[in-house]
Amino acid sequence: MKHIALALSASTAALLASTPALAEDVPPEVQAELTELRDRVQTLEALVEQLVGSQAGVANQAAAAQATAAAAETAAGEAQVAANAASEAVAAQPRTSFGAAPRTRTADGWDFRPFGRAMIDGASVSDPGNLNDPGLGFSSEIRRVRLGARGAIPGGFEYKIEVDFADNDVDVTDAILGYDAGDFEFTVGQHNTFQSLEELTSSRFISFMERAGFTDAFGFERRVGISVNYANGDFRWDGGVFTANINDLTDDSVNAYSFDTRATYSPDLNGTQLHLGGSFHHRDLQDNPGARYRQRPAYHGTDTRFINTGALNVAEETSYGIETAVIHGPFHAVAEAHWMNADIPGMANPTFFGGYVEAGYFLTGGDSRGYSSGKFQRTRPARTIDEGGIGAVQINARYDRLDLSDAGIIGGEQDLFGLSLIWTPIDHARFMINYSHIAYDDAAIALPNGDTDYSVDVVGARAEFDF
C-alpha cells in the first residue's frame, strides 16, 4: 500500500511538472482532459494516504489487543493461583454442620460431635398389703441426664466420652478410644460388655421404661477393658477382657476381671429383618468375692426390691444367653433367655434364670422399629408433627420372668406382664406410658401376715429427648 502511494505521488508530480510546458502546444480539449486527470490522481493519492493511515491504526490496535490479551492471561493465571490458595485455606478450616447437634470436622480428619439425653420419670408402685414401705406409692425422678462428645482423630482413631449427672452424682458412663481397621475395630476404656440385645440397646430406644429384669439383677454394666469387634455383612462378633466399672476402680474390685463375648447374625430377608445371637460371660472376683442378685419392680425410682438373694460369697460367675428378634414393617417381636451360674465355695452352685418375650406394633402408617449393628436403633417417624403428621405411635406387650431361687437359695421369683404406649412426635423426643402387673413367689419381703406370694401394680410415665 505504501508503494502504491509513492508511485501515485511521483506520477502526479511528473504530470504537474509537464503540464505548463505542454500547455501552449496542446489543444484546449486535451488540456481539459489533462487537468481532469490531474485532479483524479490527486484524489486517488489522498485516498491511498487515508488507507495507509487506517492500516497503520489497525496494526496498532491489533498490537494493543495482543498486549491486552497477554496481560489478561497473566492476570487470569495469577487469579487462579490465588483462588487455589484460597480454596486450600478454606478447606483447611474446620467445617461445622448442624443437625440435632452441631458437628465440626476438619480436612485432616478431626471430628467433634456433642450429644446428650434427658429422661424424666414418674410412677406409682402399689402396696401389696400394708407394708408402709417408703419406696411404695408415687414418686418421680430425673432418670438420666447425660452429656458427652464423640468423634474421630486423624489416623483412623475414634473417641467417645459421656457423663451422667442423675441421682445428684456425676458418673462416667463411657470413656473410650477406638481404632478402625476395616472389618476389625479395637476399643479400650470404659464401655459396655457384650451381654444381651436388651442391655446393648440404648435406653433411648427400648420399649419400656426399664429393661428386662435379668439385665439389672445379673449386674450387667459398663466396665473398663479392651475389646475387639469383627463385622462382615450380616455377621458380627464382639469379645473383650474387662476389670471393674470406672467408678469402682479405687475399690478392691479392681482385681476382678471378666471375659465377655457375643455373636449375632442379622440377615434381611425381603424386607424382614431377622436377628439371632448368643453371648457368654465369665467373671472371676479374685480376692474380693461377693455378689447379690436383686431387682426393682419395673421402676428405678424406688429402692424397694421384692426379689433379692441377699449377699452371697460368690467367687466366680458364668453366664450365657440366647436372643432372637424379627422386624417386619410396623411389627416387631423379640425374645431372650439368660442363665447365671454363681460359684459359691462350700455350697451347691445356684443357676438363676431370666428371660422375656415381647411384641410391638406401630399404629401409624410407614413406621418401623430401627435396627443395625446387632441392636435396636432409633425410630424415625414417617411423618413428624412438624411435617403435618402426628409422629409415630407404638404399642408393646411383654412377659418378663426372673427366677432367683435355686440350690437352697431363695431369692424369689417374679412374673411381669407389661404394656407400653410410646409416642414419638419427632426423631429426638419420646413420651411413654407403662403399666406392669408383677406376681411374686417367695418374695424377699414378707407381708405383715407372713405371706410371700403376692402381686404389685406399677403405672409409670416418661418424657425424654436427646440430641
Per CATH, which architecture of the largest domain? Beta Barrel
Radius of gyration: 44 Å
CATH superfamily of the largest domain: Porin
| Number of DSSP-assigned strands | 23
Helix content: 10-25%
Global geometry: elongated
Helices, by number, come to 4
CATH topology of the largest domain: Porin
Largest sheet: spatial strand order = 3-4-5-6-7-8-9-10-12-15-16-17-20-21-22-23
Structure, explained:
The chain is α+β, with helices and mostly antiparallel strands and 467 residues long. It folds into 2 domains: 2-89, no CATH class; 118-143 and 195-466, Porin (Beta Barrel), CATH 2.40.160. Helices cover 21% and strands 47% of the residues. It has 4 helices and 23 strands. The protein has helices at 2-23, 28-92, 197-200, 213-217; strands spanning 95-98, 102-105, 111-125, 137-153, 157-164, 171-181, 184-192, 222-232, 235-242, 257-265, 268-269, 272-284, 294-295, 307-308, 316-328, 331-343, 351-362, 370-372, 375-377, 392-406, 409-426, 429-441, 454-466. The chain has a 16-stranded antiparallel β-barrel with strand order 3-4-5-6-7-8-9-10-12-15-16-17-20-21-22-23. A two-stranded antiparallel sheet has the order 13-14. It has a two-stranded antiparallel ribbon with strand order 18-19. A hairpin with a 2-residue loop joins strand 21 (409-426) and strand 22. The longest helix has 65 residues, at 28-92. The protein is elongated.
